Amino acid sequence: MTDSSIKKRTDSASRLIKASPETIYQAFTDPRAWVSWLPPEGMSGQIDSFDAREGGSYRMVLNYIGSDHVNLGKSSEGTDIVQGTFLALVPNKKIVQCFEFESDDPAYGGSMTMTWTLTALAEGTEVTIVCENVPEGIRQEDHEEGLNSSLHNLAVFTER
């Protein structure tokens, strides 16, 4: 096996949101808020457990909406299940989480780390997400589309 075959990918996205870092941070630490904006377009979410503190864990079930997505699930037909841990919660500045997909497919194996950075600007907050060690089974184009969709949802949720 060569070094390039084991190198993990990093994906990222960023968006200016017209809301304060405090408002955005609250959308990460309230499970009802989180599940309403985090699932990308075409998916719905359900929180099974949620403990928003450093070292706290969560489990989220994401369901694809519509029969044309039935074969897309990483955990089962039409479903992605993630089990994660909050590695760092810096109020109004940063959220770092690590999670794994519950999947029998090794293409979705391993732990992915997601770092959300909130940067206060005069016109709002720049929200940047960096995903490290992205599983090889996730196509980069699909992942970037999903990240941007979640950022759009976060903007809609917090700008109201």
TrEMBL record:
Residue ranges of every copy of the Activator of Hsp90 ATPase homologue 1/2-like C-terminal domain listed in the record: 18-156
Pfam families documented for this protein: AHSA1
Domain of life of the native organism: Bacteria
InterPro entries named among the record's database cross-references: ASHA1/2-like_C (IPR013538), START-like_dom_sf (IPR023393)
UniProt family annotation: Belongs to the AHA1 family.
Protein name: ATPase
